[in-house]
Structure formats: structure tokens, C-alpha cells
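Chapter summary example.
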Amino acid sequence: MRSWWAAKLRRTARYARARVSTAERTALAGWLTDAQLFLFDRMQVADRRHGLDVVHALRDVGATDPDLLVAGLLHDCGKGPRLRLSHRVAWSLGQRYGEWIWSATSHMPTFRTGLDGLRNHADRSAELAAAAGCSRRTVELIRLQENPVDKAGEILHAADEAN
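The structure predicted for these 163 residues follows.
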């Protein structure tokens, strides 16, 4: 089993080198609406890459449900364009070592907003997905991504954690 630190370092490296190819982006037009594509395009490149990787992981375990796949792709769309790697690091450290880290970093410029964005990203992502015309089921899978209530949610959560 990988250590927490090894997993976080792997994610940081993936964040730093994240790319989405033109072919990958073009392929999305075949199964997303224009509003959903717009939402995807507004995400930071690292979150777009992560969403694509989650979809690949879902497909690898046999998932074909369009609601689940769209949820996998867009589940982090509410993180916003100003979220930085430093915010993500502080968030992860706070999850691991205690909320005192969030309190200590929230006094630094942009950190209060960044940490609030991470704290509320599931609800914000669900709201944006609903506004983009996603199904009620997709919206709920996104909203409950950290605390799944059914098998599809558990599969989404596992794919998210693995990527």
C-alpha cells in the first residue's frame, strides 16, 4: 500500500505536467452538450486532465452509464480558475494533520478564498453541472462525491481517489 506522502507527491507531479490533447478535447464533443463542454473548458488544465483520467478509470471497471461518466469528468468543475497548487497542498496537509493548518494559512493572501473553494467544491460543482443541463443523477453524484450513497457513487469516489 502506498503511503499518503507518496500518493500526494504523485498527484503533485501529475498536476505540474497536466495536459489535455486536442484529440481528447474533440472526442468529448461526441457525448457532452455545448454547455457541458463549456464547463469542462473553464476548468484548470490539471482538473480537466484529472476528470479525463477518472473517466478512463471508470471505463476500465466497465462503467458505461452516461450520468456517471459525465459526473467523473466534471466533478471538480467548481474548484475555480484561481485555485493554486499551494492551496491544494495546504488543503491536503489540513486533511491529514488537522484544521490548524487551514487556520494558519488562511491569513496568507488568497488562501482563505482558495481553501473555501476546496471546502465547498462538491456543492459548487453540482450547481454548475445543474446549470449546464446535467441530469439530476449526475448532479447528485457530483454533490455526494466525498460521501457516496450508492454503488455508482462508490465507483466514482474510488476512481477519483485513484487518480
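To summarize the output: The chain has a mean pLDDT of 94.
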